[in-house]
């Protein structure tokens, strides 16, 4: 779905025009996550810069089919790494190489090896929000959208799920209901979604008692449970949230997720009201129109390595398999 946002400022419009020209001349495509600022996630067909806008799964799929020599990833490092692993022929650039993620940083390859020793013959399911070295040690990847289907694909009764503790607790309920399987969890958290505490959601809910609630899987499970006991709504992935809004007749929603997903939703559903107890991801916000332009300008110059994602060949190859298995499941 294409979003519409308020018009660019004059300064931003200048940057947008330059980016659009350079994308064409350098045979580049821009993939943008829903947590980017509105000016980065406006689609080219609406005068913006993004060729594909989506959640992690949509962007992973797009990385395998995109018709371009260069991908500029408006997202964070683990996402750009995923694009590189899935499309090794492509040059993948991240406008700010320091755009990290608290979840991805919470676990290493050595941690996964130690988990395997402690729980032999137990498959490891890695959330896509992990670095390539963690994926390379895992059996399969998943996103918040396909985690239940991925878990169901294993014959074992118990799986290791890394690294998100809260998402693990939240998805373990439908996974147990659908498959009878148990999850062994790691203790990573998303520094953005962990801020949606029960008190924060309740304070917003008190002001908007009739609003429906949209909560991401990464939100603490106690907060999500209390919010969903007070309001009609959903806990799910970004795409589950978008689909829920599409199908709901409600006019007002409280969003328990990254603030700019609210901007994306407002762009898609201008007739609805989205109340966002705003928490921004500081890593996502490192990406700007300005450094996106710089990354494109660097293509083919000595400045390119400052933006380019380059992985150790062994890690890149081993990380491909768990991602490919995930994409085959859907
Ligand atoms: S929102 Fe959370 S999970 Fe996503 S990049 Fe930021 S810190 Fe990582």
What oligomerization state is this entry in?
Answer: single chain
Low-confidence stretches: none
Outline the biggest β-sheet: 4 strands, parallel
CATH superfamily name of the largest domain? Answer: NadA-like
Number of strands: 12
Mean pLDDT: 94
Q: Domains counted in the coordinates: how many?
A: 3
End-to-end C-alpha gap: 19 Å
Keywords:
single chain; 330 residues; alpha/beta; Rossmann fold; 3 domains; four-stranded parallel sheet; 13 helices; binds iron/sulfur cluster
Please render the helix and strand layout as text:
Elements: H1 10-25, E1 28-33, E2 52-54, H2 56-65, E3 70-74, H3 77-86, E4 91-93, H4 109-118, E5 124-127, H5 132-136, E6 140-142, H6 147-152, E7 158-162, H7 165-179, E8 182-185, H8 198-207, E9 212-216, H9 221-230, E10 233-236, H10 238-247, E11 252-256, H11 259-268, E12 273-275, H12 289-298, H13 313-329
Helix pairs in contact: 1-12, 2-3, 3-13, 8-9
This protein binds iron/sulfur cluster (SF4).
Residues 35, 76, 101-103, 129, 190-192, 258, 281, 283-284 line the site of iron/sulfur cluster (SF4).
How would you describe the overall organization of this protein?
By secondary structure, this protein is α/β, with parallel strands linked by helices. It has three domains: 10-99 and 284-320, Rossmann fold, CATH 3.40.50; 104-185, Rossmann fold (3-Layer(aba) Sandwich); 193-275, NadA-like (Rossmann fold), CATH 3.40.50.10800. It has 13 helices and twelve strands. A four-stranded parallel sheet has the order 2-1-3-4, sandwiched between helices. Strands 6-5-7-8 form a four-stranded parallel sheet, sandwiched between helices. Strands 10-9-11-12 form a four-stranded parallel sheet, sandwiched between helices. β11, α11 and β12 (273-275) form a beta-alpha-beta unit. α1 (10-25) packs parallel to α12 (289-298) and α2 packs parallel to α3 (77-86). The longest helix has 17 residues, at 313-329. The protein is globular, with a radius of gyration of 20 Å. The mean pLDDT is 94. Iron/sulfur cluster is lined by residues 35, 76, 101-103, 129, 190-192, 258, 281, 283-284. The site of iron/sulfur cluster has 13 residues, from loops.
């Amino acid at each position: 779905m294409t979003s519409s946002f308020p018009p660019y400022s004059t300064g931003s419009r200048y940057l947008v025009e330059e980016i659009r020209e350079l994308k064409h001349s350098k045979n580049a495509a821009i993939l943008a996550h829903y947590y980017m600022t509105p000016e980065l996630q406006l689609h080219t067909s609406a005068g913006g810069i993004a060729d594909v806008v989506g959640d992690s799964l949509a962007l992973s799929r797009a990385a395998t089919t995109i018709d371009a020599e260069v991908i500029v990833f408006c997202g964070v490092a683990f996402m750009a790494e995923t694009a590189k692993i899935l499309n090794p022929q492509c040059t993948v650039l991240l406008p700010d190489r320091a755009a990290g993620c608290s979840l991805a940083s919470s676990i290493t390859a050595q941690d996964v090896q130690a988990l395997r020793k402690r729980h032999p013959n137990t498959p490891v399911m890695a959330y896509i929000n992990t670095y390539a070295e963690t994926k390379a040690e895992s059996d399969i990847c998943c996103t918040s959208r396909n985690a239940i289907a991925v878990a169901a694909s294993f014959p074992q009764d118990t799986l290791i799920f890394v690294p998100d503790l809260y998402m693990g607790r939240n998805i373990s309920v439908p996974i147990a209901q659908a498959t009878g399987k148990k999850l062994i969890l790691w203790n990573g958290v998303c520094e953005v979604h962990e801020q949606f505490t029960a008190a924060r959601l309740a304070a917003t809910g008190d002001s908007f008692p009739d609003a429906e609630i949209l909560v991401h899987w990464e939100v603490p499970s106690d907060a999500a449970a209390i919010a969903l006991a007070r309001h009609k709504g959903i806990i799910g992935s970004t795409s589950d949230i978008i689909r829920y809004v599409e199908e709901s007749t409600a006019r007002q929603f409280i969003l328990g997720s990254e603030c700019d997903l609210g901007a994306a939703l407002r762009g898609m559903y201008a007739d609805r009201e989205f109340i966002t107890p705003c928490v921004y991801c500081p890593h996502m916000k490192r990406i700007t129109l300005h450094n996106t332009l710089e990354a494109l300008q660097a293509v083919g110059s000595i400045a390119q390595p400052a933006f380019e994602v380059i992985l150790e060949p062994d890690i890149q190859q081993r990380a491909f398999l768990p991602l490919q298995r995930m994409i085959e499941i859907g």
